[in-house]
Model the fold of this input.
Amino acid sequence: MSKKITFIIISIFVLLIAFFFWQKMAFDKGVLKLEIIAPDKVDVGQEFEYVVKYKNNGSITLNSPEMYFEYPNGAIIEESDSRVKKVGSDDLGGNIYPGQERTMKFKARLLGKEGETKDAKVRVNFQPQDLKIRNEAESSFTIILDKLPLDLTLDIPQKSGAGKAVTIRVSYTSNVSYPLKDLSCLMEYPADFQFSYAKPNGIDNKQWDEPILNESDSKKIEIGGILNGEPQDQKVFKAKLGVWQDGNFIVLKEAIRGVAMVAPSVRFTEKINNQEGYNINMGDRLHYEIYFSNAGDEELKDQALIIKLEGSSLDYNSIKALEGVYQKGDNSLIWDGNQLPELQSLKPGEEGKIEFWISTNKDDMMKNSSDKNPFVKTKITLGQIKQEFLNKVNTKLIAIQNLYTDSRYFSDSGPNPVKAGTKTTYTVEWKVKNLYNDVSNAKVMTILPSGLRFNQENYKVPEGTKLSFDEGTRQLTWEIGSLPAGTGIISSEKICAFQLSIEPQTTDTDILLIGSSQLSGSDLWTNNNVSISTDPIYSK
Done:
């Protein structure tokens, strides 16, 4: 092929490309006038309409138009989960003729922070008559979010000493005239904050979900913990309220509070049953001793000391105080200088002490999941100085050991009571319950005497648990694993059944059919090992 022919082919190709782009450019400049009309400002959650207006300003028909409307991030779109809505040619009314003007409307509600800007976008592509290429027009519109009728408050003490218990209270109320779905409250803590509890419980102690929050609904969260740090440090807590969309968290409200760390002028020490940091057992009789010492440089005069107790685990009718006055209405105890000389005058370095007794509710049962992880709180006020102590309550395990000679589990045989030289088979049933706190590594264990035989074929355990017998040690173990709070109270109890046999040589003495069995595990709330044992069962 000659150079001349090659040049001609290349030139034709370049001209075709240039003609293609010339055609496109010819319709990119105002052929289709496209604009979005909407309010400049809207309240968060307020329903409104985007009006998309489009007009053919050209002299030829625009065929097969298609519109793509993109809602802003955070838009609530009831009819679709997608933020981009496609409108086909038929729904647009077909071809757009010269001079023809049309509109499309898109309803929306927008979520976000007050003052935040939200951008909507629209594009329309079309086929100019007698041309092979498609053209496109686009436009956008920005709305500013105005008022957010959603209240979020974060209440926390302004000052705290190192190692003191602090209580954080979060509350929020919706005045949005639309149900807020997939709402969450997120907490951010300073590095020196040691989380203790939350009511209600959250996810990873930092997230509380509300599937739906209607207008006028209010929610409250209480969080307790220990705050550490050096005097003059500033500790920042942050609460965020928002919604989840497509895996993204859209912040609606944010509250930030700082706590100043200060050197205490009065130091408090709490002992319960002669221990600091005592974990309470249901059924305990609690002996409280509160020590207060002047850690400042000035004498404290004519003070009053107030102790207020909180916690449903306490039996407030059983309280007994030496010299203090009990106020039944708010469960508080008060001492002043008339009852305690140290409150009349406490010089720097001097110490005073008060004490009282109270019992726990021995038969207190869980009613629902909100009763999980109970605690007792002691609030101390001395003049303008306040401090809190938090004592967790251990879970309570319940183990029941039953013996049947005609059970619903297996076919038992032989005489009852047992007879010398005759084999008897019988069934042992273990039932376990767990109150208050989640337990891990739960198991029931017993040692079988040499005269008892474990039937390897006849046993039943719940799914996910395991029963095993060690021939060497004669240990029979039911490995339960996780035992959630409320097992046997607000959910079904765990039951294990197995068959044993015995053929005694003599019946002159009581025959042991199953020894004492121990239920044990690790309390995930108090980090204590907990256990309880059953009584052995003998042949009648």
In short: The longest strand covers residues 248-261. Residues 3-26 form the longest helix (24 residues). Residues 396-538 form a domain with the Immunoglobulin-like fold (CATH 2.60.40.740).
